[in-house]
Write a structure and sequence with these properties.
The protein is 28% helix and 40% strand. It has a four-stranded mixed sheet, covered by helices on one side. The radius of gyration is 11 Å and the shape is globular. It starts with a strand and ends with a helix.
């Protein structure tokens, strides 16, 4: 079954900008690039999402590890 939620995440040292598309609705939101921001982002996208992360240096690494551990 294909995910109905798709998310693109732009990564910087201090922030994550997510664009989430569900059905025909698109929303954008910014999160901190820290543990609290990662938890907020996970709650915002849900676990049944297909995610693409724009990797910048090593700033995406902790986010990617958290998403994988959460089963995203």
């Amino acid at each position: 079954m294909q995910s109905k939620t798709k998310v693109g995440i732009d990564v910087s040292a201090k922030t994550l900008t997510g664009v989430r598309r569900r059905e025909h609705e698109e929303k954008e939101q910014e999160f901190g690039n820290d543990a609290a921001g990662h938890r907020e982002l996970l709650k915002w996208i849900g676990k049944a999402a297909r995610v693409c992360v724009e990797a910048t240096g090593v700033y995406h690494l902790q986010l990617a590890l958290m998403l994988r551990a959460a089963g995203v």
